[in-house]
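Quick one - inputs below.
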Amino acid sequence: MANSSSSTSEALRQTLQLKLDYDQLTNCMRCGFCLPACPTFKETGIEAESPRGRIALMKAAVDGLMEPDVRFEEQMSHCLGCRACEPACPADVKYGQLIEQARDAIEDHTTQHRVWVKGVRKLVFKQLFPHQGRMKMLGKGLRFYQRSGLQSVVRKTGAVKLFSKQLSSLERILPKASGKGVVDQLGTRIPAKGKKIATVGMFRGCLMDTLFMETNYKTVGLLTEAGFEVVIPDQQNCCGALHAHSGETTQAKELAKNNIRAFQEAGVDYIISNAGGCGAILVEYDHLLHDEPEWQEQSLWFAKRVKDISAILVEKGNPLLFNNSNDKSEPVRITYQDSCHLKNVMKAGAAPRKLLSSLPNVDFVEMQDAGSCCGSAGIYNVTQPEMANQILDHKMQHVNATRPHYIVTSNPGCLLQMKLGIDKHADNNQMQAIHIVDFLYERMKGLN
Amino acid sequence: MNNTIKQELRDIVGQNYFKDDEESLVTHSYDGTPMLQSLPDGVIYPKDTAEVSAIMKILNRNHVPLVSRGSGTNLCGGTVPVQGGVVMVMHRMNAILEVDLQNLTATVQPGMITKQFIEHVEGMGLFYPPDPSSMSISTIGGNIAECSGGLRGLKYGTTKDYVLGLECVLASGEIVRTGGKLMKDVAGYDLTKLLIGSEGTLAIITEATLKLIPMPKHKKTMLAMFTDLYSAARTVSHIIENRIIPATLEFMDNPTIKVVDDYAKLGLPLDMAAILLIEQDGEPEMVERDIQRISEICREEQAAQISIANNQEEALKLLTARRSAFTALARLRPTTILEDATVPRSKIAEMVLEINRIALKYNVQICTFGHAGDGNLHPTATTDARDKEEIHRVEEAFAEIFEAAIALGGTITGEHGVGLVKAPFLEWKVGAAGIELMKGIKLAFDPMHLLNPGKIFAKETRRRVVLNRG
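Output:
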């Protein structure tokens, strides 16, 4: 295997040539407008850590100007995939697609993952997320761990230190898990309260339905109160976002097809997601399946119907939902951390703000750089802990400056990351991170 | 560049701040200019003036070229390392050293991001007018090196009007200070002004003292559309003749209007020959009076449509068309070539007609927008770098556009700089004696041609295009 390094990179170059969209690479005119939008560039000030730099590297690898070596692979995995560069790009370069294509190519060749990252990837991508039943089992296991006293034994005995540092901080902030999903609790069809506005299909998500089952339950509550009939097709599965972002495209496509079938059978007007990370891939299923002509019509049908919970409440929901002059709920100050994919891909960053600032007795304070990634980014905070922590440290400075009672978010990954941030950095022990659905639901209850 | 030199450089800045891996070289081989790429031999990130000086001494001793740069957003190939050597990135030197409220000056390091600086002083009720469209990422050092302009040039001038003093490092490594917190200073040649716009070919700027002015209290925005190009151009002249200097006086021609409308779906009337976007700022009474007078002038010149914004929201709507121009053009084709030929503002109409004629002649798409108030136009070609034959026609067209600008008393570049791209045309503007004079200045500063070599001066001047005005 004397020559393995250069033959691997030559093979990788060929795969990159095959998979990267050369038109998109050419469309980058290197104006640099993406640089101030990029969290990893902001943290490092290094051109290679910017979208313009990464595109230049991809193009140089394809053009034969450089070898796609280990550092090339590392640079591709440093990207958070937050896609904040896309709205900043005058030329409309599809950076999100390019980075996924590059990772897809690298995934075909790589031998470079550290052993435990490899383990995590295999567990997450192949054995866990595609199987809702296993996710539930995991939820049950976690629930047992948390409630049986095992958790406190692990913590007290110091066994928690056996996890990597990053995993052990995550272990501390994990919410109470549930072994029962939203369908077990509510069934698959829940009628609208009052006059029905539309029938919506709920995308329950895999993390959302185990770690954040309460949020799913309350999502259904908000939707039905707002006038929607809710259908939850039980055949749906993981959205495939983590797979697509990490180069596991084939698997992502299979997951997408199954979801499209499930929601088409249910015959819904809209498909509602309460996780920006899931919503963003759902809304791009047409792109994910673009090279499979027989799926074109169905994937477009699906993508056009996808809406975030905040967006559907703002655009179509009963406007009286939160509008009550007799409101007696406790006055609170809140701030909002954008879900990158809700803002940059679903283009629905305004909807949560509109809802939050309309609530009585809620003082909504915008923090500096709310639209910049928190460092969670799927499994990034597990695979790239150093950069993720650096980003989180800066994020918490901006959070603390607004002195909020609640940091509201729209995505489970961001929510966990903000909990981690509070655990590590909060000036104020009253501060809580909360999903927007949970916050709205409590406020709605306060009105009734 | 051998390993001994590399080690010496690492000894100065530390292991992490000199890089020579392929990733670093590739990502410092380009700037914002289309179709240019050349790999350096190393990239260095100094933290202060002393490091810059020490680095320069080593490079000088070993005859290694150096290209200093900020964010690499320039449009003239000004920071592409065409002769290799070391690229010096100034991002770590990004502090505001002082804002002096008694003298209304700010002293900053060159890596300071322009927009962050502007926001910082605006928070203190002060104003730094130069606003190049790349300001969200461009650096003050880069703006000084290129003498950047922007939308506010007509009333407030450009970067050169706001630099009072500089600290810089010469090719020899010596540190020189010019000017100061001084509104008057005639002690010898004006080295400050000489360094502004010198494109990194004379010295490395390591600190700048900038002039600040009070923030205007009020601003008002209006838009006027014209079916006749000449009446739009006359409107520009008449506004100035009436002793009104607007803060912004922007222009879009018919091809740009069509492209923008197609992109932003603004419902713009497509039969208009030109749109003028006008802003005035200052004391509220004066702003109201000026805007009223400007709209009268527009009416006298048969403007087809005039809209005046009553609030910030309406102003933003009026600004949308002009703000979308670059984005709309950039999305049209893979390659966007944006030039900055500039003429006396009384010649705007003639220049636009020349550009349109030339575009037709070479069968290329060129849309023109820009800063009508200061005569600085942006004829923008949308093309595809992979189509060599078309690129050749685009280049021919631009050569003729430069020639036309000079014939109208204008210049080949108003705010982007000469760099590589316009070096073959420089002699057309400044003449052979002018070139020799500039070469003499270069030699006095940098006798071994180490600082940003290959820029400004071309190996060969391009043969002049013979204008056919038939």
